[in-house]
Design a protein that fits this description.
The protein is of the alpha+beta class. It contains nine helices and 19 strands. The strands form four sheets. It has a seven-stranded mixed beta sheet with strand order 1-4-5-7-8-11-12, covered by helices on one side. The protein has a seven-stranded antiparallel beta sheet with strand order 2-3-6-9-10-13-14, with no helix packed on it. The chain has a three-stranded mixed beta sheet with strand order 16-19-18.
Length: about 325
């Protein structure tokens, strides 16, 4: 639906303000009954109108009295002849201003967190947790944002994620839990998973630690189960085994390597440490693997052990981890 024209909007406002003629009322009713979309649009406008205190205040304004008060304050002669267009302008304003307010209010209600049906929770520079109305638990990595419908009371529990979050979803087979992230979404009934969008590349990574989820975009969908991860980028979706749970080290504080090759170690370093934004590996290929466990380590703690184990140089330069022989 492209939406009603301005004339229909004017009729709706006249109806809501009680300033509609019988002929106009009949015309509006015919339009409303013409389709379910028209009926829904009118219902939405009526809902926003009734809930808006700002509009109720507008209705209490006495335009004529306010104009007389204005003239008195600025020293205008109250007997001066008014321009013929004055009343027409006032009538047009009385119709168009509420119409604009209704459209703006409905836009805020439907789309902006904090103004209507949506709430938002944002983390600062640290990991923060929130328990949702359905008892689902969400941990947000630093500088992430979660937007969700108030009460999560609809047929579907819908949320939007920016950044990275770990979800422990309360089971409810009748009400799917759907997280929108970038150009993809995750749909579950009850499970645990980590979801992240790289703000620089737009790459979205899903790691499932319990249960199963449906990972989808506009063009494709795959099912991802516990012990698997999936990546969505410009090339499409790709699923693979989840070799470790280091993807949630930001939440647990634990980094665990079990017979891990250097490639896996480097991937974890970029994912976990803010100081490491890129890797430059100038060393010869190594067949060595590492088994080790770190609890809330600093970057230097890990680098010291990597130098000893792999017998290579690991240095940080301008947020780049450089490896050499």
């Amino acid at each position: 639906m492209n939406g009603p024209d301005k004339y229909i909007d004017e009729l709706i406002v006249k109806s809501l303000t009680g300033d509609i003629s019988p002929v106009e009322k009949k015309e509006l009713n015919i339009w409303v009954e013409k389709s379910d979309e028209n009926s829904a649009y009118f219902g939405q406008m009526d809902k926003v109108w009734n809930k808006s205190e700002a509009l109720e205040s507008f209705l209490s304004v006495d335009v004529e009295a306010d104009f007389e008060q204005f003239k008195s304050k600025v020293g205008m002669n109250t007997k001066s002849v008014r321009l013929p267009l004055y009343r027409s302008v006032i009538k047009i304003a009385a119709v168009m201003i509420p119409a604009i307010l209704i459209v703006a209010a409905y836009g805020l209600y439907e789309n902006v967190a904090g103004f209507g049906k949506w709430e938002a929770f944002a983390s600062s520079d640290a990991v923060e947790n929130v328990v949702l109305a359905d008892a689902s638990e969400v941990s947000l990595n630093a500088n992430s944002r979660l937007v969700y419908e108030k009460g999560l009371s609809g047929a579907e529990r819908r949320l939007k994620l920016e950044g990275e979050g770990y979800f422990k979803v309360a089971k409810n087979p009748d009400r799917p839990f759907i997280v929108k992230i970038g150009n993809a979404e995750v749909k579950v009934l009850g499970t645990e998973f980590n979801l992240e969008e790289n703000s620089n590349t737009g790459c979205i990574t899903l790691a499932v630690t319990e249960g199963r989820v449906l990972f989808s975009s506009d063009n494709e969908a795959i099912e991802v189960v516990a012990g698997e991860k999936a990546v969505f980028n410009k090339s499409g979706m790709k699923k693979s085994l989840l070799l470790s749970e280091n993807c949630i080290a930001w939440k647990t504080g634990n980094i665990v390597f079990e017979n891990a090759p250097l490639s896996e170690v480097l991937e974890t370093m970029v994912d976990h440490f803010k100081e490491v934004e890129a890797i430059e590996n100038n060393s010869t290929e190594s067949e060595l693997r590492i088994t080790s466990r770190f609890s809330n380590p600093s970057l230097e703690d890990v680098l010291v052990e990597l130098r000893i184990h792999f017998k290579k140089k690991f240095e940080i330069n301008d947020n780049k981890l450089i490896i050499s022989d």
